[in-house]
Amino acid sequence: MKLNSRKRMFYLIYLLLLVPGVWCLLPPKFQWKTLDFAWEGQARDSAIKSGAYIPENNMPAGIARWKDRLFITIPRWKKGVPASLNYIYLNSTHSPLLNPYPSWADAFLSSKACCASSNSTVVSTFRVHVDKCGRLWVVDNGVTNMAHDVKQIAPPAIFIFDLKTDKLMHRYTIKDELLRDSSVFTSIVVDITGKECKDAYAYIPDMGSNALIVYSLKDNDAWRVENHYFHFDPHAGVYRVGGIDFYWSDGISSVALGPIKKNCRDLYFHPTSSTKQFAMSTKLLKNKNVPREDIFMGVQVIGNRGPQTQATACDFDLEHNVLFHTLLSKNGVSCWNVDKPFKRDNVPLIISECTALEFPNDIKVDHEGSLWILSNRQSRFLYEAMNFTDVNFRVLSAPVASVIQGTACERTSAVSKAFSFMTRPRCNSECKVNSGTT
Ligand SMILES: *[C@@H]1O[C@H](CO)[C@@H](O)[C@H](O)[C@H]1NC(C)=O
Ligand SMILES: *[C@@H]1O[C@H](CO)[C@@H](O)[C@H](O)[C@H]1NC(C)=O
Ligand SMILES: *[C@@H]1O[C@H](CO)[C@@H](O)[C@H](O)[C@H]1NC(C)=O
Predict the structure, then answer these.
(1) Cβ distance 83 to 98 under 8 Å?
(2) Distance 160 CA to ligand 1 centre (A)
(3) Which residue from 32, 358, 389 has its CB within 8 A of the most atoms of ligand 3, so it is best to mutate?
(4) Model pLDDT, residue 15
C-alpha cells in the first residue's frame, strides 16, 4: 500500500515535471554520418575501387520494422549504391552496418550493371511495407542514377518476400500500359481485409504521373486509377528545409489504410506538394471495372492541415485510429485521430526538432505498437552537399501510445479530460538552420 502510493507519487512527479520538456523530441535510436555495409571479405575495398560503393552517395529513404529487424531502403539517386534494399538488427548499437536483402548475391549491383542479378534483385526502391502475414512488399522502380542520367535496368515490379524464410514468394512486373514516362513509384501499402493472406491488395502511388496502381494478389492483376485529387496544389509547391529552398510539383506519394468497417475501409492520401487531406473508399479502388465517374466523384476532401504542412509520408495506427504525417517544412510529425473532426487543433505537431528531424522522410507504425521515423537531410543531399563529419541520417522510435499522450490525438476518455490541464505544449517548428555549405 505504502509502496503503491509512493509509486503513484513518482508517476505524478514524472508526468508533471519531466515529461513536458521532452515531448517534442525523441532520442535517435540509430544514426549515421554515412551508410556502410556488412561486407564480406575484401569486398568493400574492391567495391570502392570499382565505384560500386561511393559512401557519400548513399542516402536512406524508407524504413519498415519486422520483429528483430529494421528494413532500410536506399534509392539509386546517384551512382555507387551497392544495394537498395537492406536491413539492420534492432539489437545493434548506434550506427549499424547494413545487410543487403535477401542476400549480398541477390541485392548487389555494380556501377556498370546492365541488369538485375537475379529475380530477387530490387534495383531501386523508396519505401516498403510489412504486412500482417509476415511478408515484405517492395515496389521497385528498376532504375539507376535517377538524379543525373537515369537508366532503366529492370522493369518496375512488385516483390513479395516471405520474412520467415527470406525467400521471394512472388514477383509481378508492372505492365507497360500502366506506366507513363514520368512514373515514379514512391511507396506501397497492403490491404488484407479477409482472413486469407492471399486476399490482398496493394496500393502504389505513382508520384511522377499522379496515379495509383492497384494490385490484386489473388488475381495477379494490376490497374491504374487516376484522379484530379492526386495532383499537386500550386499553393503548396514551395519548400524550405535545412536552409535550402526548393520547388516541387510532386503528386500523390504516400497513402495509409484506415480502420476496417464491414469489409470496407478508407484509403487516406495526399499529394506531397499539398497541405490537404483526402480519402476514398477502397471499394472503388478494388473494383477494376468501376465507372470513371465514380472514381472522380468518390474522393472525400477532409480538410487542410495548414500552411507549410507538406508531407512526404504517412501511416495509420489501427489501435488508436491515428494518422501520422511527416511534415517537411516543420521538421516534425503531426497526427490526427480520425474519430475527431479534422480541424487545426486536432492535427497538432507532436514531434519536432530542427536537427534530429531535418527532412523527415518516412514514418511507419509497426505491428507491435511503435512508431518509427527516418530523417535524412534529403534537400542537402540532392541540392547542395552534405557534411559527412556530421550526423545526417537518423531513425527515431517510440510507442505510439506515449507519442500521442496528452495530445489531441489521444482518445478522449473521462480520465484524459480530467487531466486535460496537463496537455502538451505545442512544438516549436521555427528552425534557424545554417546549412554550413552556402
Ligand atoms: C542481434 O540479433 C540477431 C538476430 O536476432 C542475432 O543473430 C545477434 O546475435 C544479436 N546480436 C547481439 C549483439 O545481441
Ligand atoms: C526465381 O528464379 C528461379 C530461377 O530462375 C526460379 O526457379 C524461381 O521460380 C523464381 N522465383 C520466383 C518467385 O519467381
Ligand atoms: C560539419 O559538421 C561538423 C560536426 O558537426 C562541424 O564541426 C563542422 O563545422 C561542419 N562543417 C561545415 C562546413 O559546416
Answers:
(1) yes
(2) 25
(3) 389
(4) 47
Q: What is the pLDDT of residue 437?
A: 38
Pocket test for ligand 1, best of 65, 89, 166 (most atoms within 8 A of CB): 89
Buried b (16+ CB within 10 A) or exposed e, 55-82: eebbbbbbbbbbeebbbbbbbbbbbbbb
Cβ of 89 below 6 Å from ligand 1: yes
Q: What is the rounded CA–CA span in Å between residue 116 and residue 425?
A: 50
CA dihedral 218, 253, 64, 106 (to 10 degrees): 70
Residue 316 confidence (pLDDT) above 50: yes
Asked if the model's pLDDT at residue 21 lies above 90, the reply is no
Q: What is the DSSP letter of 294?
A: H
Across 410-421, average pLDDT: 71
Q: How far apart are CA 102 and CA 83, in angstroms?
A: 10
CA of 91 to the centre of ligand 1 (A): 6
Cα–Cα distance for residue pair 225/208, rounded to 1 Å = 14
Predicted confidence (pLDDT) at residue 177 exceeds the cutoff of 50? yes
Instruction: State mean pLDDT over 80-106.
Output: 97
422 pLDDT band (50/70/90 cuts)? low
In this predicted structure, what is the pLDDT of residue 435? 44
Q: Which ligand is nearest to the CA of 167?
A: 2
Question: What ranges make up the beta strands (E) of 26-102?
Answer: 28-32, 62-66, 69-73, 85-89, 99-100
Task: Report how far Cα 132 is from the mean position of its chain's Cα atoms.
Answer: 17
Q: Which of 103, 115, 119 to mutate to test ligand 2, by most ligand atoms within 8 A of the CB atom?
A: 119
CB burial class (10 A; 0-12, 13-18, 19+) of residue 162?
A: middle
Domains and CATH numbers, the chain: 1-32+237-438 (2.120.10.30), 36-226 (2.120.10.30)
